[in-house]
Amino acid sequence: MIFDVSALSHRGLFITFEGLDGCGKSTQLDKLATRLREQGHKIVATREPGGTATGESIRKLLLDSGTTGLSSMAELALMFASRAQHIKEVIEPALSEGKIVLCDRFTDSTEAYQGGGRKLGSEPVLKMHKIVCGGLQPDLTILMDSDVAHSVERARRRNRSRTAHHRGNENRFEQENRGFFTRVRDAYHAIAKREPRRVVTVDARGTISETHAKIMEAVHKKLKLSAKTA
Predict the structure, then answer these.
(1) Is the preceding peptide bond at 49 cis, omega within 30 degrees of 0?
(2) Domain holding 121: CATH number?
(3) Are 195 and 184 in contact (CB under 8 A)?
(4) CB burial class (10 A; 0-12, 13-18, 19+) of residue 89?
(5) Range list of β-strands (E), 77-149
(6) pTM for the whole structure
(7) 82-118 tens-digit pLDDT
């Protein structure tokens, strides 16, 4: 299936991937990026927190297990500090050039993790989003739904491997209990229910290929891209 975005406006497309840690977001984002690049599209693949030198420094602070004493509001503020720089340096310039931006997490993650998991609620997150992000919203959000226990255990195994190979420590969130991640998943479902035109929920419990096929279908259907057999 080939997607033709030439009929759309010159401004690019903003697609985000959301879900619990360990659900396979990064793998599926990379597969979509590869497919679209093969079709000749200009792709920018990025992530949050991170995406810039400043953002990566903030990411290290936020995800390192050594910062367990960080307050929930400080966590929220740092997420948006990283996002503000990310929008300025990466996302907006790429969209202005007509590129497709694929981003691993955006404000929905903050609403799910800090709003839901940390019990701050949606209101402060959405207020910060309006201040920091203005009118910027993804054209499509792929919410990869998965089992809480399976996803968290997969994320923990990944981070143990990262630590063992001296590639950094990003397991602060994985140390949370099941109740925390259940609240995160519930918050994601609430967002999807609130914004059904933007958020497409994809069952990520199948094989990588099966999940990829569902995502390709969602990209075609929700963004109304012209499609034809390759």
Answers:
(1) yes
(2) 3.40.50.300
(3) no
(4) middle
(5) 100-104, 140-145
(6) 0.86
(7) 999 999 999 999 999 999 999 999 999 999 999 999 9
